[in-house]
Amino acid sequence: MTYEIERLSLHADGVTHGPEGTVHVAMALPGEVVEGEVIDGRIAQPKIVTPSHDRVKAPCPHYRSCGACSMQHASEAFTAEWKMDVVRQALTARNLPVPEMTIATSPLNSRRRATLSGRRTKKGTLVGFHARASDTVVEIPNCLILRPELLAAIPMLHEATAIAGSRKGEIAFTLTLSEAGLELAAQGGKDPDTAQFEALSGLARSHDLARLSWNGQVIAGRRPAIQQFGKAKVVPPPGAFLQATHHGEAVLTAFAKAAIGNAKKVADLFAGCGTFSLPLAELAEVHAVEGVAAMTEALDQGWRQSQGLHRVSTEARDLFRRPLLPDELAKFDAVVIDPPRAGAQAQIAEIATSKLKRLIHVSCNPVTFARDAETLIAAGFTLDKLLVVDQFRFSAHVELAALFTR
Ligand SMILES: C[S@@+](CC[C@H](N)C(=O)[O-])C[C@H]1O[C@@H](n2cnc3c(N)ncnc32)[C@H](O)[C@@H]1O
């Protein structure tokens, strides 16, 4: 039996309907006619009977096996339009107006921070990304998303896996490019014993890593793993959140700087290590609020050692449980908010009842963003600007920045 693909799901699967009900079809595009066995509502290995005009040959040699990318079979123009459409549909599903939007897509091989998996096997070691819908680790020496510095570190990750990995569990290796070279933050397995500690410390030396940590314990801190945020240099704690590409960070920062307008006092909520706070401090006083104290401490240090910035104050605070209240929000001319995927329901509810006039919402989840947008618009805000950002090229992940005013 053949099926015609109607649309893509949020995970970029083709969606169609048959006698079985809704059927998801791996790697199929809207308009395509496909054939294949439906198991549990899904065709995992479809035969494409009629291909879409938007179908292209996947540029990466690992695409068939590696599960990190899910859209390499679609043209760049299709993916860009689809990502904007995901945001459009999240808003229209709630009857919200959709402003003009544009998209900024990060270049190939630009991921400066990524988590790879390492596993010991009978024969040796495996390092790479997971296969599609599986915990098998796939080698990715010619990956098109990682920066060359991260790709060049894969042999070193094999060595680290051989030193401290096990056949029972997996190690999550977060590689981050810093101004001082590569940083490796490993999680998983047992904490290294003395011999492993020494071997890993030797590994950090021989591969000239800026820092190597294991389950949060710093094994080698050879140079400060500096990140430059505007005029400030910050040394984030091991494995701390950073925007995935320099391009994405620059685009989001430029959006926030333009969107605060003439604000003199700005709050940056879910501030991380100061990605936005420190560049914004070139224009205004900033109060940065973040849940992880080690991150606010890094931000504070970065600000103290910088020159020519307005004052930056920091606060470690759980914004899910203790959002800023309307009397606290009254101190600010603009607020920047960049919550995790779950969104910021409690904080948005307080903003809705406050007198705040200008909010910049950065989001990595269009669904929770649309929920927040509904609350804000019901409270008198208008959604003036929308920029979709594609830092996770070839994946179904969609990020955005929006300006709300009232
Ligand atoms: C998407 S990141 C953004 C960080 C920063 N704006 C940046 O661009 O680098 C979200 C941040 O929210 C923080 N976070 C998560 N849950 C939180 C909570 N309940 N209260 C405060 N901060 C939280 C995380 O530690 C993380 O730094």
Structural description of this entry:
This protein is of the alpha/beta class and 406 residues long. The chain contains ten helices and 24 strands. Strands 8-23-24-22-21-18-19-20 form an eight-stranded mixed sheet, sandwiched between helices. The chain has a seven-stranded mixed sheet with strand order 11-10-9-12-13-14-15. Strands 2-3-4-6 form a four-stranded mixed sheet, with no helix packed on it. The structure holds S-adenosylmethionine (SAM). S-adenosylmethionine binds at residues 241-243, 270-272, 275-276, 290-292, 295, 318-320, 338-340, 364.
| List of distinct ligands in this structure | S-adenosylmethionine
Shape: flat
- In round numbers, the mean pLDDT is 96
What share of residues is helical?
10-25%
Q: What spatial order of strands do you see in the largest sheet?
A: 8-23-24-22-21-18-19-20
Uncertain residue segments: none
Distance from N terminus to C terminus (CA atoms, Å) equals 54 Å
Assembly state: single chain
Radius of gyration: 23 Å
Number of helices: 10
Strand content: 25-35%
Largest sheet: 8 strands, mixed
Q: Please give the number of β-strands.
A: 24
Structural class: alpha/beta
In short:
The protein is α/β, with parallel strands linked by helices. 25% of the residues lie in helices and 29% in strands. It contains 10 helices and 24 strands.
Topology of this structure?
Layout: E1 2-4, E2 7-8, E3 14-18, E4 21-25, E5 33-35, E6 42-43, E7 47-50, H1 76-92, E8 101-105, E9 113-120, E10 125-130, E11 137-138, H2 148-151, H3 154-164, E12 171-178, E13 181-187, H4 194-206, E14 211-214, E15 217-221, E16 227-229, E17 232-234, H5 246-259, E18 265-269, H6 277-280, E19 285-290, H7 293-304, E20 312-316, H8 326-329, E21 334-337, H9 345-353, E22 358-363, H10 366-378, E23 382-390, E24 399-405
Parallel strand pairs: 4-6, 8-23, 13-14, 18-19, 18-21, 19-20, 21-22
Antiparallel strand pairs: 1-5, 2-3, 3-4, 5-7, 9-10, 9-12, 10-11, 12-13, 14-15, 16-17, 22-24, 23-24
Helix pairs in contact: 1-10, 3-4, 9-10
The structure holds S-adenosylmethionine (SAM).
